[in-house]
Write a structure and sequence with these properties.
The protein is mainly alpha-helical and 482 residues long. Helix content is 77%, strand content 1%. Helix 13 runs antiparallel to helix 14 (370-398). The longest helix has 32 residues, at 27-58.
Length: 482
């Protein structure tokens, strides 16, 4: 189906009250998607809380970084494969499999006698969690009518913000009143409940059959995995030759992956020409990737730098970082009822807020006051929440229907890829700037200046991609206005 022959004019009056949405037959589908996203969002936060207790119990302090890296790598690889899984196996089978993998990973970690076994569990959790989030986006795009899309994304965003508080709280309760193993067990139970819910679910929304298993592009996925691992290694220990070799090798593997995937046909993982900025989908993915890279510094290095420069407590720093999640949730919920004719305006405004926050961090992290850092953190999250609510609705209105699964799965996957590669990039800048040797607030301020200055080019690139994305007029395919 061509983009021009089967499109009608944009429905400009698509306001849907929350009461109508939550009372519709799609409410149970929304609850299922929200539980899937919750598992991924809260799990990554609960583990950060439990890590000190885990190390005290079973050792493995030198492997702490890998507990996070393996989870992220698994999430990216599973996210890249999610659309093809849904197309081959069907949405029901794909979500059930990823939920089961997530639960199995939690059980492995809960029973682990050593940290290497925990890492195996974390890898399985990453694969399951990344798959659940990407498939959740696919579910939103194919299950819900277009008039409900923004409300569904807003509900997911609100849940993500809630996880920023409840995840660490659950981890703290597990460590304080039981053991870290019960934290993993708690999420395993939820994952198995989700699996059972999906399998036994009645109704037609998730019951479509896939195209059959066929051959899965495992070599492509292995190449993507290798690319992320090599770039991550580049930022671990800075040395001119070592860092250059790992970074170039990782980017080369990523380039080969994109080339091979672009020449594939039925087993293609990503949309066609996913990073061609001249096309609306390519511009959207560049926008998401660039601004993810630009904003990872405050999450990855903000707590350490704020403590070193301003002498803040861990609790205060935690609330500064949490302000981003609060801002994201608030703007997503408040704006989700906006009619579709305003999508471009809200996406442009949101991404401009995100870019502004990068400039704000460059000043406020160095100079304070602390409330200003909190404000820019809220602006960053608020900008993402404002734009994110409408990106899926707009991009699916611009794309060919045959690409919807791949595009929906690619949006959260490319974002996580931006965070992962951005963390490696900023890690290289931070280590080269003297992060490991800073011993005074002044030295820490110099490191912070270089780190946030290195984020600015990606903020600019994100704004350029946003402008390229918004220049395309949206028309809605027949049958998609809901």
């Amino acid at each position: 189906m061509s983009d021009t022959a089967a499109h009608t004019e944009l429905d400009t009056e698509s306001f849907v009250p929350w009461r109508e949405f939550l009372a519709s037959r799609y409410a149970s589908s929304l609850a299922l998607v929200c539980l899937a996203v919750w598992l991924h969002a809260a799990d990554s936060l609960i583990v950060a809380t439990m890590l000190p207790s885990m190390v005290s119990d079973i050792g493995g302090a030198s492997l702490i970084g890998w507990s996070i890296s393996l989870y992220e790598i698994g999430s990216i690889v599973a996210g890249a494969a999610s659309a093809l899984m849904a197309m081959r196996l069907g949405l029901r089978a794909s979500m059930a499999m990823t939920a089961l993998l997530f639960g199995a990973g939690c059980i492995v970690s809960a029973a682990a006698p050593t940290m290497p076994v925990v890492l195996v569990g974390r890898a399985l959790q990453g694969i399951g969690g990344g798959g659940l989030v990407a498939l959740g986006f696919v579910a939103v795009s194919v299950i819900f009518p277009r008039r409900y899309t923004a409300r569904a994304i807003a509900a997911v965003s609100m849940l993500w913000g809630i996880s920023a508080f409840l995840g660490p709280l659950i981890g703290g309760i597990a460590v304080e009143y039981a053991t870290w193993r019960w934290g993993f067990a708690f999420f395993a139970i939820q994952a198995f409940v989700l699996t059972l819910w999906i399998v036994l679910r009645s109704g037609h929304e998730m019951s479509e059959r896939g195209q059959g298993a066929g051959d899965f592009p495992l070599r492509h996925l292995a190449l993507l995995c290798l690319a992320v691992v090599l770039v991550a290694f580049a930022g671990v220990e800075i040395g001119l030759m070592r860092t250059a070799l790992f970074a170039i090798g990782g980017l080369a593997c990523l380039g080969i992956f994109l080339r091979l995937d672009g020449h594939a046909t039925e087993d293609r993982l990503l949309p066609l020409r996913p990073f061609d900025m001249r096309k609306p989908v390519g511009a959207a993915l560049w926008m998401i990737f660039s601004l993810a890279v630009a904003t990872i510094a405050i999450t990855a290095f903000g707590p350490l730098l704020l403590t070193a420069i301003h002498g803040l407590s861990a609790l205060t720093v935690g609330y500064i970082v949490a302000a981003s999640s609060i801002g994201w949730s608030v703007t997503a919920v408040l704006s989700s009822g906006s009619p579709e004719r305003h999508d471009g305006l809200l996406i442009g405004a949101g991404m401009s807020m995100v870019a502004l926050s990068v400039v704000g961090f460059l000043y406020s992290v160095l100079n304070g006051p602390v409330w200003l850092v909190v404000l820019f953190s809220a602006i960053e999250g608020g900008g993402f929440g404002l734009a994110w609510t409408f990106i899926l609705r707009r991009v699916t209105g611009l794309a060919d229907r045959s690409e919807i699964h791949r595009i929906s799965g690619a949006i959260p996957t490319v974002q996580r890829m931006g965070y992962a590669l951005g963390a490696a990039y900023i890690g290289i800048v931070a280590n080269a700037s003297g992060l490991l040797t800073m011993d005074t607030p002044g030295a820490a301020a110099e490191v912070a200046e270089r780190i946030f200055f290195a984020c600015l080019p990606f903020a600019v690139l994100g704004l350029v991609a946003t402008a390229m994305f918004l220049r395309h007029p949206v028309r809605v395919p027949h049958g998609q206005s809901g």
